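Notebook, student rotation project (T.W.).
Task set for the rotation: take a protein with a known small-molecule partner, predict the structure of the complex, and write up what can be learned from the model alone. Partner molecule chosen: pyridoxal-5'-phosphate. Sequence and SMILES entered below by T.W., checked by me.
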Amino acid sequence: MRSTKAVIYSENLRANVREIQKNLQSGVRLCCAVKANGYGNDAVNSARIFEELGAEYLAIAAVSEGIELRAAGIRTKLLLLSLASPSEFDLIVKNGITPLVFDEEYIAEFEKACKRNTVSSAKNAGHIKYGVFLAVDTGMGRIGCLPSEAASLAERISCSKWITLDGMITHFAVSDSISPENIAYTRAQYAAFMDAEQAIRARGINPGIRTCAASAASMAFPEFQLDMVRPGIILYGYYADEVTKDYLLQKGVPLALRPVMQFETEVCAIRRFSAGKSVSYGRTWCAQTDTDIAVLPVGYADGLLRRNSPGLCVTINGRAYPIVGRICMDQCMVDIGLNNPDVKRWDKAVLFGPKKDAEHPEAEALFDADDLARMTGTISYEIMTSIPTSRVSRVLG
Ligand SMILES: *Cc1c(COP(=O)(O)O)cnc(C)c1O
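Predicted structure of the complex:
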């Protein structure tokens, strides 16, 4: 096996789910996001764990992700968070995936797919209505109907011969921010969602499962948990932007998370460089003194972003060493210093993972995905989803 791999610590994933569950009000269901290969953390393994721990739904973004989960034996309901092409509608129905809908054209097209693929049951002497969620855009500006349109669309769905309203969903734009104006924006989104729900109920329609909160809001605004929360990033061990552990502790939410993924490789060569010799493309770094350079078989095509050098350090046997020179597509180089007795060929080099600290002395990483994200001007989500499965195997650890 290639030495560059992503080790997935299932016990950390389980512990994160239990932490989240501890902070849910009673009866609140879990919809665990497994889109984008479980944020890079192996969708199938993650889905099995979420299923075992009682998730009501798993959230996907592409129909192909749902097909992969069904092929792996996952039976839990799947909520498709993005819109699909009408050419995929038959596959949605055949795989029992719950779509979001919010306009007449999409609904009518989806009804046709339900009709084409309908399964009659002797019990209801007809067909089983297919469940959909109504998406309401309360301020994210992505998908969803206007709150003022929600009641008439709910009525359209509830009058359908083919589909039925299983729930309603909205998504927050700034619930991961703790600035007063952003908190006010989130509260206004929530109020608009509640208005839409009231309008639906006023027509005598049951809105089904109401869900608005992803990771940040589900923990920072426990009163927004409603019938179901939709965590993603916190499952995989990272806080959502400004809603950090410290902030949550102040609010009385003791959420202790552990990163699930460790991105690692091995030293594949150690090479002596005399003073003045340069490393990599562009000759951006030259040895100031005689030194040894460790070569790592990991590069930007593995998700180790090129702009991380200079700056990024990797952990080898518990110590941090800087990447020097430009990161190449498939390789990068690390300055380990002259005659370093702590680094040998084939030793493990950790790019990021669950960090070593007083509580976790056994951990190998000195940096996590948040550290890389901060350096790179991005978020942990992007760091993990940038690691391609085609080149970097996910190995259960
Ligand atoms: C991705 C996504 C989530 C999960 O978001 P996190 O910030 O990772 O918790 C929830 N709901 C929707 C609609 C999403 O697109």
